[in-house]
Write a structure and sequence with these properties.
The chain is mostly helical. It folds into three domains: 32 residues; 101 residues, Up-down Bundle (Four Helix Bundle (Hemerythrin (Met), subunit A)), CATH 1.20.120; 133 residues. It contains ten helices and two strands. Strands 1-2 form a two-stranded antiparallel ribbon. A hairpin with a 6-residue loop joins strand 1 and strand 2. Helix 3 packs antiparallel against helix 4, helix 6 packs antiparallel against helix 7 and helix 7 runs antiparallel to helix 9. It is elongated, with a radius of gyration of 32 Å. It starts with a helix and ends in a 6-residue tail after the last helix.
Length: 306
């Protein structure tokens, strides 16, 4: 009987041990899962920071909500004070360098409160370290400390600077209207580009098919639409364009018309159409489409960034 009881207690003890080990294993798995979830949340936030739109609270520092680009002007003040530190150090004027530092620190602190979502973008540790380095008078320490502050600035700029330019500087194509010389209708810029592209393609297709009369008719539309492009440019630009739609491009358009009106030289026509496509269409798109497409991406995927 005693032997049986010992065996029973041993079995119960073993069962408890197995249960404890299982519990510890479950806890470890839960801890690991929580860690992975936290990493996933961090990665998602980083992706939002990279690909997502700017904080809405920044809008009040730019037109039309503000009379001027307030945030940009405040950033100029910050940069001026930071640059003042470097200039005064190069001139051997430590008192002036420290004065520039105090102005920089005050402006840094001010801007850290202007956009709540960017509070962490303005860490005080590197700024305070710069002050300590200046107090030490050691040029090597000052240089290292200024580099750390520059890294804090750069980490924000690499993510947000181009976004701010795209959002607050580049006008949306939806706001640009052009009167189509062919249909006489007022078209949004995107629709006008589609009509222009259609004329360009029609000329090419008709020439390849040997339909010279049709090619000549479509070229008239192409030429008229091409030469109306500068009227669209003035929606954003206040100075004459010296590229993309300038005289050199229009001369290629005219030369293409002369080739089509006469006896077409396929090699010359290919050169002219390639020149127009590369020097006007492609290069203009390389400059303007990134900003426009990014604006549309923010709108299409807005739900992802909430």
């Amino acid at each position: 009987m005693k032997t049986i009881l010992v065996a029973v207690f041993a079995l119960i003890g073993l069962s408890l041990l197995v249960l404890l080990v299982a519990c510890d294993g479950s806890k470890a798995k839960v801890t690991e899962l929580e860690k992975e979830n936290q990493q996933l949340k961090s990665q998602n936030q980083q992706l939002k920071d990279i690909a997502g739109p700017l904080p809405a609270s920044l809008d009040k520092y730019f037109p039309p909500q503000a009379p001027a680009p307030v945030w940009l002007l405040e950033m100029f003040t910050l940069e001026g004070a930071f640059g003042g530190i470097a200039v005064n150090l190069q001139e051997g004027d430590m008192p002036a360098a420290k004065k520039s530092y105090e102005a920089f620190k005050a402006q840094w602190t001010k801007m850290s409160d202007m956009v709540p979502e960017w509070k962490s973008r303005f860490p005080m540790e590197p700024v305070n370290s710069l002050g300590q380095a200046l107090d030490s008078g050691d040029p090597a320490k000052v240089g290292q400390a200024m580099g750390q502050v520059g890294q804090a600035c750069g980490s924000c700029h690499v993510v947000n600077l181009v976004k701010a330019q795209q959002k607050y500087h580049w006008k949306s194509f939806a706001e640009v209207k052009v009167t189509d010389p062919v249909s006489k209708q007022s078209l949004a810029w995107r629709d006008y580009m589609l009509a222009l592209s259609g004329s360009f393609g029609a000329v090419q297709v008709d020439l390849q098919a040997g339909k010279l009369d049709k090619a000549r008719q479509n070229f008239q539309d192409l030429s008229a639409r091409f030469k109306m492009l500068p009227a669209g440019c003035v929606n954003c630009h206040t100075t004459p364009r010296t590229y993309f739609v300038d005289k050199s491009v229009m001369d290629m358009v005219d030369a293409l018309g002369q080739q089509i009106q006469g006896t077409p030289n396929p090699q010359k026509i290919e050169e002219l159409m390639g020149g127009i496509g590369n020097e006007s269409c492609l290069k203009c798109h390389l400059v303007h489409l990134p900003a426009q497409n990014r604006k549309q991406q923010w709108e299409i995927f807005a739900a992802l960034f909430k």
